[in-house]
Design a protein that fits this description.
single chain; about 220 residues; mainly alpha; 9 helices; about 0% strand
Length: about 220
């Protein structure tokens, strides 16, 4: 009995360490976003501070989008790990993939800030492709612990719909990526909708589950 309890505690400590390490990576990625703003700290000669910032609004918009991206990814990462109770030798690598995409986010954010006005469609497409890769990582970080039974049995039903949500996000972000080459405003609108959905991942998954349950209860 004591051995079982000790094993459970060790597994819990491993998942806690994995999440703590991930939190540090998220924090560093958000910090890196500020570097793009620091580059416009000093206005050009003869230009007022306010005028300089108004003429260089793109980095501020890119910073806001990048910050929201990383924040919402952190919210979802924390949400998923609240259900993961055990780990194995592969889960850190799966988690590492999504962290790789998060640490990459400041780069397409900088491209978006630099080229939004001149090559907006291509710049937004690069940023959108990063969303697509994050969606793949988000699905993988759900599918792997679900398939390997690293979550409690009582949570499997809800977690299944959480996994489905991220699965659909892969299709959604790929379509939004294609729209980037057609219309910048439409693509930005699609990403705003994505933000709204994944800002509250648990509530959206619960609504998804309840809707499915209502359909099953309807008489045929």
């Amino acid at each position: 009995m004591s051995n079982t309890k000790e094993t459970t505690e060790n597994q819990s400590n491993e998942t806690a360490r994995l999440e703590a390490f991930s939190d540090g990576v998220f924090a560093i990625a958000i910090t890196l976003l500020v570097l793009e703003l620091i580059q416009i700290l000093h206005p050009q000669k003869g230009e007022s501070l306010l005028k300089s910032y108004l003429n260089h609004w793109e980095p501020f918009l890119a910073f806001l989008i990048g910050f929201l991206t990383i924040l919402i990814c952190w919210i979802n990462h924390h949400h998923v790990f609240s259900y993961i109770k055990k780990t194995d030798s592969t889960l850190p690598w799966v988690n590492g993939f999504i962290l790789l995409m998060i640490t990459f986010t400041p780069f397409p954010t900088a491209i978006l800030a630099e080229y939004l006005e001149t090559e907006g469609k291509f710049a937004l497409a690069i940023f959108g492709f990063n969303y697509f890769m994050i969606a793949i990582g988000s699905y993988w970080i759900c599918a792997y612990p679900y398939n390997k039974s690293l979550i409690d049995e009582k949570d499997r039903k809800l977690f299944h719909y959480i996994k489905l949500t991220y699965g659909y996000s892969i299709i959604y972000t790929f379509l939004a990526f294609l729209v980037c080459f057609i219309s910048i405003p439409v693509a930005i609108l699609l990403y705003m909708i994505l933000f709204c959905v994944f800002a509250y991942p648990k509530e959206f998954a619960m609504r998804f589950l309840k809707r499915k349950q209502r359909k099953l209860r309807k008489p045929k």
